[in-house]
Amino acid sequence: MPIFKGVNYDSYLKRLMDILLSVVLGLFFLPLGVILAVLIKLDSAGPVFADTPERVGKNGRLFKMFKFRSMVANAHMMLRHDPKLKTLYAKYKKNSYKLAEDPRVTNLGKILRKHSLDEIPQLVNVIIGHMSLVGPRAYYPDELSNQQKKYPETKKLVSKVLSIKPGITGFWQVSGRSAVNFDKRIAMDADYVEHRSLCYDIKILLVTPWAMISGKGAV
């Protein structure tokens, strides 16, 4: 039935599920979130939340994504403008904006990133309406621009991916293939957009806890 998939699903049932589950999960993770906030401040200098630029959301609209800080302060700009990190930045772009070994990650950040605990604050983004619980990755503007130059065949796929809200979790995130290059990653995101439905989202949500615990494929 239309309400269980596609555009109608996005507008009604998916949105309702996003709000209800985000509130429940937010209350569940609140004590852990408070503890993590204290630990982040004790672990390294800088804000509790990541000081990163806006991400690209539905229809190309930019929004501020809330994440616990897992890197040193100002890590995003540091990588792009610090001459000492020029080689690392080149490797970052070559590897489709992923680094297996990143010196900017803090000691606590390694744990947060491995188990996706840094993404807990994104529940606020879901409640506000910037994101969905399940959806494509939310990319940086420069990431999308540069990767489409590198993989020009992905432009149509990017347009499809940007037709819906990005998600906290998604198909490629829970598949253990988060380290794949942009062309494969965006193809997986586009495939999700094409086949999104209530059943599909439930399947992804059910395997997400194990993906968090195991840390498989996390980068």
The gist of it:
The chain has 219 residues and is mainly alpha-helical. It is built from eleven helices and four strands, in the order ααββααααβααβααα. Helix 2 (13-43) packs antiparallel against helix 6 and helix 8 packs across helix 10.
What attributes does this structure have?
4 strands; two-stranded parallel sheet; 219 residues
Structure description:
The chain crosses the membrane at residues 20-40. GO terms for molecular function: phosphotransferase activity, for other substituted phosphate groups. Keywords: Membrane, Transmembrane, Transmembrane helix. Pfam families: Bac_transf (PF02397). This is Bacterial sugar transferase domain-containing protein. The chain has 219 residues and is mainly alpha-helical. The chain has one domain. Helices cover 55% and strands 5% of the residues. The chain has eleven helices and four strands. It has helices spanning 6-11, 13-43, 75-81, 86-94, 107-114, 122-128, 141-150, 155-161, 171-174, 182-195, 198-214, and strands at residues 55-56, 62-63, 132-134, 167-169. The strands form two sheets. Strands 1-2 form a two-stranded antiparallel ribbon. A two-stranded parallel ribbon has the order 3-4. Helix 2 (13-43) runs antiparallel to helix 6 (122-128) and helix 8 packs across helix 10 (182-195). The radius of gyration is 17 Å and the shape is globular. It starts with 5 loop residues before the first helix and ends in a 5-residue tail after the last helix.
